[in-house]
Design goal:
Length: about 375
C-alpha cells in the first residue's frame, strides 16, 4: 500500500511530505530545515518531529541555493601525501578539525599539494563555490597558496604563525608558543649540567622551525654555531643532522630537536655511535606525539603542544565567523582550554596555545 506522504516505495521523503505530516506549509518546513528565524517554537517542534519520523534528509544542493552555504570546509595541507600520511602530526590535527566540523554537521574536504602544479587546482576549487571556508596549514615561506586563497575569496584560518609580510595583522591563525617551548627545552638541558647543547632544526622555511631556533638562541646567544644542524621535521632529517653534529662536535652532550620525529632519528644515530642516552647525550624533542615519544628508545622527553586542540580551534574559529558556533562561553572554546589572549576565538586575529615540558627518560 502506498503512503500518501511518499509518492513511491523507497522514495526519498520530500518537503511536501514533511509539511503534510506536520500539518504546516512547505515554506514553514523550509525555514525550519534551513535554520531560519520566524517560526513559532510549537510549529518548529512539529516539523522536527516529522523530519525524524519520515527520515527526511535535506537536499544540500537545493539548500545551498537558499542559505548560500555548502556545509563543507576545505582543509588544505601544503605537503605531498607521502609526508601527510607518514607524519602523525597531521593525523592529530585532522582529528581535531574533523571532530569540530562533525559536531556542526559540516563536511571536511581534504586538499593536498604535491607541487606547484596543484596550487592552481586548489585555487579553482576554492573559488568554485564548493565550500564555506578553508583551513590551511604547513605553509612554507615561499608558498603561493596565501595569495591564491585570498584571491578565491573564501574565509580562511591558518595553522601556524603566518610568515608573509603583514600576515600577523591581517590573518586569523592558531599556533602554539614555539619560541617559549624551545626556551623551556634548552633551559631544562642546561639545568641538567649540559654545556655542549646542540639543536636540530626543522625546515627553516616554516615559521615554527624558525621560532624554535630563535628560542634556542634566546637561551644560548653565544653558542657555538657548529652546534646547530638543519633538519626538516622528518626522522631521516634528524639522522642526517645528528651525524653532522657528531662529526663537527664529537663532545656534544645534549640535543634539542625541533620535533619528535627528528629526535627519534637522532636517537638511532646516537645508539649506533655507541652514545648512551641520557648518560652521554641528553635528548629533548618537541610535540609530544605519543606514538613517537612514548615508543622511542629511551622514551622521549619533549615539549608538548596540544596538536588536536589546535586543529579543533582552527575549525571553531572559522565556524564562529560564520555564526555556526555560539557564544564564547560554550563548547567552541572549553574553559579548560581557553586560549591566552582570546576571549572570543571567532573574532580573535590569532590564538597561541601554551606548551609544557613532559619529562621521560631521554633527558
Amino acid at each position: 500500500m502506498r503512503s500518501s506522504e511518499v509518492s513511491e516505495a523507497g522514495a526519498r521523503p520530500t518537503l511536501e511530505a514533511v509539511a503534510a505530516r506536520a500539518g504546516v506549509s512547505r515554506a514553514t518546513v523550509s525555514r525550519v530545515v534551513n535554520g531560519e528565524a520566524g517560526v513559532r517554537e510549537v510549529l518548529a517542534v512539529k516539523v522536527r518531529r516529522a523530519v525524524d519520523e519520515l527520515g527526511y534528509v535535506p537536499n544540500r544542493a537545493a539548500r545551498s541555493l537558499v542559505t548560500r552555504r555548502y556545509d563543507a570546509v576545505a582543509v588544505v595541507i601544503a605537503e605531498p601525501e607521502t609526508r601527510v600520511f607518514a607524519d602523525p602530526f597531521f593525523a592529530l590535527q585532522l582529528r581535531g578539525i574533523s571532530k569540530e566540523l562533525t559536531a556542526h554537521d559540516v563536511q571536511l574536504v581534504l586538499l593536498l599539494t604535491e607541487g606547484r602544479a596543484d596550487h592552481a587546482r586548489v585555487g579553482r576549487y576554492l573559488s568554485g563555490g564548493h565550500v564555506d571556508g578553508a583551513l590551511v596549514f604547513s605553509l612554507h615561506l615561499d608558498d603561493p597558496l596565501p595569495v591564491i586563497i585570498n584571491g578565491a575569496g573564501v574565509p580562511t584560518v591558518f595553522g601556524g604563525r603566518p610568515g608573509w609580510t603583514g600576515g600577523e595583522d591581517s590573518v586569523r591563525y592558531v599556533d602554539c608558543d614555539n619560541r617559549g617551548g624551545a626556551r623551556t627545552a634548552v633551559r631544562h638541558l642546561a639545568g641538567l649540567g649540559r654545556t655542549r647543547i646542540a639543536h636540530i632544526t626543522g625546515a627553516l622555511d616554516q615559521t615554527s622551525a624558525a621560532d624554535r631556533l630563535d628560542g634556542f638562541r634566546d637561551v644560548l646567544p653565544a653558542g657555538d654555531a657548529r652546534l646547530v644542524a638543519e633538519g626538516d621535521f622528518t626522522p631521516a632529517g634528524g639522522e642526517r643532522a645528528m651525524r653532522h653534529l657528531l662529526d663537527r662536535c664529537p663532545d656534544v652532550d645534549a640535543v634539542f630537536a625541533a620535533n619528535d620525529l627528528s629526535a627519534a632519528g637522532a636517537l638511532r644515530v646516537l645508539r649506533a655511535a655507541g652514545r648512551r642516552v641520557p648518560d652521554d647525550v641528553a635528548v629533548v624533542g618537541f610535540d609530544d606525539m605519543l606514538p613517537v615519544a612514548e615508543q622511542a628508545d629511551p622514551p622521549l622527553t619533549t615539549v608538548r603542544q596540544d596538536i588536536e586542540e589546535m586543529g579543533r580551534l582552527m575549525a571553531a574559529m572559522l565556524l564562529r565567523g560564520q555564526d555556526r558556533c555560539p557564544a564564547p562561553d560554550d563548547s567552541c572554546v572549553r574553559p579548560r582550554e581557553r586560549p591566552r589572549g582570546a576571549d572570543d576565538v571567532g573574532h580573535a586575529a590569532s590564538v597561541v596555545l601554551p606548551t609544557e615540558l613532559v619529562r621521560r627518560e631521554s633527558a
